[in-house]
Amino acid sequence: MAKKLLVLLLVLFCIGPSTALVSLGAFAGPLGFCVTDSLTVGPIPDSLTATTADGTPVVLGKQQLTHAATIITTGAGIPGVGEAGVRIALVAALTESRLLMLSNTGAYPESAGFPNDGDASDHDSLGLFQMRPAAGWGTVAELMNPAYQAKAFYGGKDGPNYPSPRGLLDIPGWQQMDPGSAAQAVEVSAFPERYRNWQPVADAILTALTKPASGGGHNSGGGEVPETSRVVFPLPAGSYNATDSFGWRTDPFTGESEFHSGSDLAAPDGTPIYAVADGRVAVAEFGGWGGLVIIEHTVKGARVASYYVHMWRDGIYVTAGETVAAGQHIADVGSSGRSTGPHLHLEIHPGGQGQPPVNAVEWLTQHGAVPSDGTSMTAPGCRANLGGQR
Predict the structure, then answer these.
(1) Do both 68 and 194 map to the same domain?
(2) Same domain, 206 and 354
(3) How high is the pLDDT of residue 340?
(4) What is the pLDDT of residues 215-270, one digit of tens each?
């Protein structure tokens, strides 16, 4: 009785304008677009040659790439950053210092006593992100530590500089900014247009330094997935209406009694879909049943797979192998495949892909799902483009 009451309260809390009925969750089809890497850093090459947006060739040495690896691994360990946030941090560090740990003996003679890659004289700025002790980013000793600077850049409530100066996670709406604008929002540079030029180099670094997800297709789990930091609802509170539940029902297309393996949540076309937990994208494709994203998670020590279905071809924003954070904007509601109107078909599979599904709404309730506050939503960076229109 208590479980039923909790489910009823969840539905009432999230009730919204009903726009459609539902579809059957069945999935098939090969991957149809680019595959990116996870945020697991592999062997660091001795050098990397890349090209900026304006066509200038750039050669990065092993020390610069080692600092890039620090930025990547630091971001991978902070909930809400994800691949999009790491890309922004790399853009910022490339622009500010060319990924060099710079001292500034003119302003801080003691900075020469810490490991560094050279001396600079940009006012009173230090290090990879050219942070200023006078602005509150940290002490000279702290700012001459690459990992500290990376944590400060990402910010957030657990950041060393919270609440001011603001790191990336403290910037409202950073998820909707392009990487250059988001970097500028943290750095507050007098030359904001510089950052966009370095995005191709940041992308090249991510490709070169991170290990590709193992395997492919519907079984590409990518290995171990860290324990999630939280569980969230997959749609914004108040934006959707539960229109069809898990279990046996009359199929809207055939009229036959068939088992419905997911929970259908009707919402306006284009409503953002969030990852229900931290995890790794195993599948992101547009096939015979429309848009499909599958994410593997570790929740309370156990493997769980979440399935999101019926997005439009241009409404999928993640790719296979990508690491995502709970609440990250992974797709938009659509009505592709066997669907009678815009909605999200959500499935939860304890044990991972291929294991029997359970009632997704009940599972969210049992695991303390909270409304997504949007702090983990992805920024445009590797926005999947499957081609074609709706």
Answers:
(1) yes
(2) no
(3) 79
(4) 333 444 445 788 888 899 999 988 888 766 666 656 666 666 666 678 888 899 99
Asked if residue 274 and residue 136 are part of one domain, the reply reads: no
Structural domains counted in the chain: 2
Q: What pLDDT sits at residue 17?
A: 31
Shared domain for 184 and 77, answered yes or no, is yes
Asked whether the beta carbons of 307 and 23 are under 8 A apart, the reply is no
The span from the CA of 75 to the CA of 210, in Å, is: 13
Q: Residue 75 and residue 79: Cα distance in Å, rounded?
A: 8
Number of C-beta neighbours around residue 83 at 10 A: 29
Last residue of a domain, one of 177, 193, 212: 212
| Domain boundaries, position 148 | 37-212
Strands 343-350 and 263-266: antiparallel
47 lies in the same domain as 173: yes
Q: What is the DSSP code (8-state) at residue 298? A: E
Label residues 336-353 b or e (16+ Cβ within 10 Å = b): bbbbebbbbbbbbbeebb
Name the token pair of 254: 């055939």
* Strand, coil or helix: 203: helix
Measured between alpha carbons, how far is 256 from 236 in angstroms, rounded to an integer? 33
Task: Check whether residue 64 and residue 19 sit in a common domain.
Answer: no
Looking at the DSSP bridge assignments, the partners of residue 242 are 265
Q: At what angle do helices 179-187 and 199-209 cross, to 10 degrees?
A: 100
Paired residues of 212 in beta bridges? 37
Place of tokens 């909790």: 6
Q: How far apart are CA 298 and CA 225, in angstroms?
A: 6
Same domain as 203, residue 346:
no
Tokens 């769980």 sit at which residue? 304
Please check whether residue 347 is in contact with residue 218, taking contact to mean a CB–CB distance below 8 angstroms: no
Same structural domain for residues 225 and 346? yes
pLDDT at 47: 94
Residues 258-306 have pLDDT tens digits of 666 788 888 999 999 999 999 999 999 987 668 899 999 999 888 999 9
Question: Could you tell me how many helices (H) and strands (E) the chain has, helices first?
Answer: 8, 15
